[in-house]
Amino acid sequence: MSDFLSNFSGDDYKGKMPKKKQEKSKEKPxxxxxxxxxxxxxxxxxxxxxxxxxxxxxxxRTTPSTTSAPRELFDNPxxxxxxxxxxxxxxxxxxxxVPTDDNYESDDLHxxxxxxxxxxxxxxxxxxxxxxxxxxxxxxYVTYYQMTRVKMPNFVDKSVxxxxxxxxxxxxxxxxxxxxxxxxxxxxxxxQEIPAGKKVKKGETLTFTISEGADxxxxxxxxxxxxxxxxxxxEFIEKNKAxxxxxxxxxSDKIEKGQFSRVEFSNKEVTADxxxxxxxxxxxxxxxxxxxEKNIAVPDFSGKMKNEVEEWAQKNGIAMTYEExxxxxxxxxxxxxxxxxxxxxxAKKDKMTVNISLGKAVIVxxxxxxxxxxxxTAVEGMDLSVQQLFSDVVPYGQLISQSVEAGTKxxxxxxxxxxxxxxxxxxxxxxYFGQLEGDIPKLLYDDFNSKGAxxxxxxxxxxSESEKGQIVKMSVYNQYIxxxxxxTFGISNGRFADLPGKIPDKGPDKGPDKGPDxxxxxx
Length: 523
Hints:
The protein is an alpha/beta fold and 523 residues long.
């Protein structure tokens, strides 16, 4: 401490004083001399020493001593040493001098020392206050900015559902535009107007371009599927987004596995030349021959109904064939026999045959052994139709024909209607003399044509005493004729006839007018 105080003694102290203080010291030389004479440190009254003074006056910071002439202490090295000794003697005492009117001295009589770091501290304090305010404002703005804005994600190639969810959570409005795309799947985001990572204010309207998938109306040039493998077809479908083209595998006993089988358009109007993406097309490839394990046990179908067999075959995928046969013992509709015995194992799509009863069959007899009258009761259950016709060949009463061959079995699924024809023999024509011309068609039909003959006729008129319109001549009568004969009739014109109803006189050698001979007619 003595080293420190030595800096303030004598001329060194004066030289190190500030200019202001040096000038002040020159103005009061006499005062300083008076102080130099006083070397002793005044004693402080005991009543002025206290550990906690009740009241102090406010005064400027001064040198530690309250006595006059502190400068002499610093100017005289001996006094400094004595002061050090005094301080060392009572280091634990603290003297608080309470200023009074007697001992208070004006500031002009004291040396005021200013702390050089005070202004710097005040300046730093102001800077700290201003910085705190600015920091608070910045933090508030940043907080507000962060609360009202959100970072824009990257929605490209993502679903529009993700966009809607994010927009709903952040109170965003959406403007969705549609566009076709071969690259993006339907409902995927193709483009977003605001790039990813940029801050977006909540409540803004965001624009996105959403993919509608590939254009369904676009025409697609189809390749030759016959020369392509199944994987190549799938690559073509994926590349062209032809989602309506289906690759289907099917079993085939003829086409090798993995080979092209066939192509089928769902619409008959669609061809390979006008195919569009929206049209449906099936491309079939062979899966080879289908092989199944023989793990299906065949039941005993004897005596069971046909519908039971059909149900079992459909359930197990058996290719069942039904053959219907007559049976005198098994009821109609039930199984008589089966091609695969019971309990034998078969596989899916195996072939099997069962015989279904048609009931008792009716055998068609040979109706040549029966007459037209007895044929009706020849066989029970037969729906028989009997007819008699003229025949130039078959004698009267014999069978001309029957519609179903003799010995044929007629079952429940067959018609039991049989038609038999018996012969009337050769046609025989009677005389029609005296009949009217108008009756000729009826006479020929009833007697001949309705019974299988085909008799035709012609007429001519002759002078006769018979009533006008009567048949007086016939080309043939009262004899056998062919079934297809042509007959001429001579009709009276009534030239010589009396009044209607009168019988003309006939001489002994007069007889009925027979008309011209056949030979005359021929001439």
